Amino acid sequence: MRKPIIAANWKMNMTAEEAADFHHSFRLEIEDVNGVEIVIAAPFTSIPKLSELLGGSQKVRLGAQNFYFEKAGAFTGEISATMLRELFVRYVIVGHSERRQLFGETDELIQRKVAAALASELRPILCVGETLETREAGQSKGFVHAQLMNSLPTNGADGTVIRSFTILTTNACPALAPLHARMPVVLERADWGLWLGEATGDPAPLPYLDAPDDRARGAAIPRPSSRR
Fold it and tell me: Would 228 be classed as within a structural domain?
């Protein structure tokens, strides 16, 4: 049985000093937590400090929020998988809705990132999801199906973690926060297996849910028995 993953995306929050302070209290909170893999996707500037503090922790894994698929070169402002691996980063988020919407990342680019991550022994956390308008129009399944198939490399995707979500603005609509916190994947698990099998021939990785964006930094880690 695959170990559940609980991941927190810190987004553009937490300086290195703040990350260190958080780590000291967080490690005490999770002393009795077992049976799950915890991932902290920190800003680039906080990764070296967290890497130093986490050491070889088997309970908390370090993640990055983005990277570029090329190994090296004239790509100002980008960071490579090799650079992340040198800092003992294990996971990397790919295809987050903010990267797609605000920075114009396409399925083609995301597909290349997923392939590059796997080739570098990083576990990509591939994000797919529809807008609320698409969901209300009853088009979620087809939209996410297309996004998923276009974002996965055709030569194999085993080891990829998939996060499926509806893009909601909880700050603008607080009533949606509980829904966001417990958002079910929009596809049945059998569909994941069927679709991924068609595309890659690999077993389907398990989708995961993370904490709501507005509480991700300080979210308490639930016990495994609380997961459904």
Answer: no
Q: Is the pLDDT of residue 190 over 80?
A: no
pLDDT at 191: 46
Q: What is the mean pLDDT of the segment spanning 211-226?
A: 34
Task: Give the number of domains in the chain.
Answer: 1
Cβ atoms 133, 140 nearer than 8 A: no
Domain that holds residue 65: 5-223
Q: Is 153 exposed, middle or buried (0-12, 13-18, 19+ CB in 10 A)?
A: buried
What's the CATH number where 109 sits?
A: 3.20.20.70
pTM, two decimals, is: 0.75
> For residue 152, what pLDDT band results from cuts at 50, 70 and 90?
confident
Q: Which residue did the predictor score with more confidence, 224 or 97? A: 97
Element (H, E) at 64: strand 60-64
- Cα–Cα distance, 147 to 129 (Å, whole number): 8
Distance CA 188, CA 172 (A): 29
Task: Check the CA dihedral 63-25-16-53 and report its sign.
Answer: negative
Looking at residue 198, its pLDDT comes to 45
> What's the farthest any 2 CA atoms get from each other in the chain?
48
Three-state DSSP state, 58 = coil
Q: Which H/E stretch holds residue 130? A: strand 123-131
Quote the DSSP letter at residue 14. -
Distance in angstroms (rounded) separating the CA atoms of residues 64 and 83: 11
